Description:
The structure holds 2 protein chains of 2 kinds.
Chain A: H1 2-29, H2 34-39, H3 48-58, H4 62-74, H5 88-123, H6 128-142, H7 145-159, H8 182-188, H9 194-232, H10 235-242, H11 247-284, H12 290-299, H13 303-331
Helix pairs in contact in A: 1-13, 5-6, 5-9, 5-11, 5-13, 6-9, 7-9, 7-11, 8-9, 9-11, 11-12, 11-13, 12-13
Chain B: E1 2-15, E2 18-31, E3 35-39, H1 46-54, E4 62-64, E5 67-70, E6 73-74, H2 80-90, E7 91-94, H3 108-115, H4 126-143, H5 149-154, H6 162-175, E8 180-184, H7 192-209, E9 212-217, H8 220-226, E10 229-234, E11 237-243, H9 244-249, H10 254-261, E12 313-315, E13 318-320
Parallel strand pairs in B: 3-9, 3-10, 7-8, 8-9
Antiparallel strand pairs in B: 1-2, 1-4, 1-5, 5-6, 10-11, 11-13, 12-13
Protein name (chain B): Peptide transport system ATP-binding protein sapD
Main location (chain B): membrane
Organism (chain B): Paraglaciecola arctica BSs20135
Amino acid sequence: MTNVLLRYTNLVLVTLFILSLLSFILAYLFPGEAVENLTGLRLNELTAMQNSALMYSADDNIFVQYWHYIGELFAGNWGVSFSSGLPLYEDVGHYLPASIELSAYALFLSFFIGLPLGFIAALRHHKLTDYSLLSVSLLGYSIPVFWLALLLILVFSLQLGWFPLSGRISLLFEIPSITDFIIIDILLSDSIDKQAALISAFRHLILPTLSIAVVTTTLILRITRRSVIETLNSEFILAAYARGLTPRQVLMRHGIRNALIPILPLLAMQFPTLLTNAMIVESIFSWPGIGNWLIQAIYQQDYPAIRAGMLAVSVLVVIFTMSIDLTIRLTDPRRRRAERATT
Amino acid sequence: MVLLDIKNLTLEIDISGGWVKALDKINMVIHEGQIHALVGESGSGKSLIVKAIVGALPVRWRITADRMTWKGQNLLTMSVKARRKIIRKDISVIFQNPINSLDPLLTLGQQLKEMLPTDKLTKTWFWQRNAEKQGLAIKLLHKVGIKNHQICLNSYPHQISNDVVQKFMIAMALASEPKLIIADDPTRGMEVIAKTQILKLLSRVNQVRNMSILFVSHDLLAISNMASYMTVLYCGQTVESGELQQLRKRAFHPYTQALLDSAPSFRKDLPPKSPLTSLDGTIPTLYHLPIGCRLGPRCPRARRECVAIPQIRRVHTHFYSCHFPLHWKAK
């Protein structure tokens, strides 16, 4: 147990180290002065004193520079954006929760729809239900996300006018940002009409969540179906039937858990795809998330912002994937070693 | 009393478009309290028969039989639910591969308790029931010779050595106190001591509780120690069946003779350094089944008539299906 924890911590630390190294090297690879890319300050805007201090450290060897860089990263001093001049640390801290919120809802939605449908398809294997679910999922899987998002906007916002076009919440509401997760912020704030604000926030959430969730749902459906079919054909399931258990007992006691264990790591691997899709959808729906922010930064060649955003997103992905892996590793009894010889 | 009566059981498998008879007119009768051995090479369809009896075959495969009854009730025409009830109550299977036939995510204790029949429990409340189940499970483990019950019940299948899991499987099979135990090659790949223990355990169960055992194996030595009746299977056809003693003394079918000859322990007259006998060739695959008697191409006594399926002939309790049986002049 401690051994496993240590190994995973080690792995995470090494990966994060490499990520920080990459983001540091990026500053040298981007066009312009490395100092500019790291701080976001133009050289000619600096005061003489800052300038001499910078020159002093820039003359140091690269390891010392990296050491300083890491120190500043942990101090929350990520530099400022070229275009807006705002500090990047606060910006990322403000935009990242919006993205996490959107992706989390999409992920939950796809789990709630994809898992049961996957089970149904597997239980009706080689029957009409299976085939129709499979073809629908193929359709959902093949639709490009940006196109789907545009279609949804076209139909539900412009034609039918059911849902708002863009943003997180109606401009009428002034939500003080505490956690930057909009739903939590609404619940925390006390100055406004909570119910109306919640309804508005949900109406804004529906379309972007749906357009991200479609692809993920179909992925989950297909992975689940495959895994359940494999599990149900395995020897111990047949053995359970041969012991005279009812199909319901077999599925509930032996089927579900065994089918879910191989699914989870595969789903963890889908998280980057989900995040990429979320970025595209964010910029279509003008969702104030990290994806939208990064794409703007790329357009404006805002190198410090690109560097900081990439670092933040990749750290998020690494930590999420690793923690799911670790949970599975610790809960799967098959991976537990025999502790003793037995009679 | 006849427990299981199978007449002309045929199992057809769909292989790339064509239906192939994996089992061709199998006959078998199991009496109460009998140890019945089912012998055959690997690939002769022994495990398929076991699966056909308990209904653990894929739905796509076609099963037909003139008669397949359990104590007079037809297993093939009854509802799935009724059949499952019979299997739950009266038939237990010990599988070939003990570790794979257990759920890897549940402890052995949970799986054993699942098999205890609920109508045998006397207590009402669930905590009393749990305690009672625990007691019954420990008793069962002691019966099959697992002394360290606590470790065994709390472990997962992969944490326990193979022979202990096999004993545990026997405990699971005994849990519902069945009338018939089907042991599908229970000693596969085991070393001698574990093997003897398991065989002794099975014979004791048969003697003490009068349970019938269908012992599926190719280990002739084990069979001759335990079984009273033997059915020989070749490539999905029953070639011969009868009392074990009679079969050993005077086998009618060339395949049975070859099988007996291939076990050196049965040949008392075997001089040192003499070559061991074996039947030439291998068992045919399902794609290339010969017509008629399937032993045809390998049979030392085959003639032209063997392309027709031989009728079953009977001498007292001894059945065989061969056109040109051994010892037939002596008969």
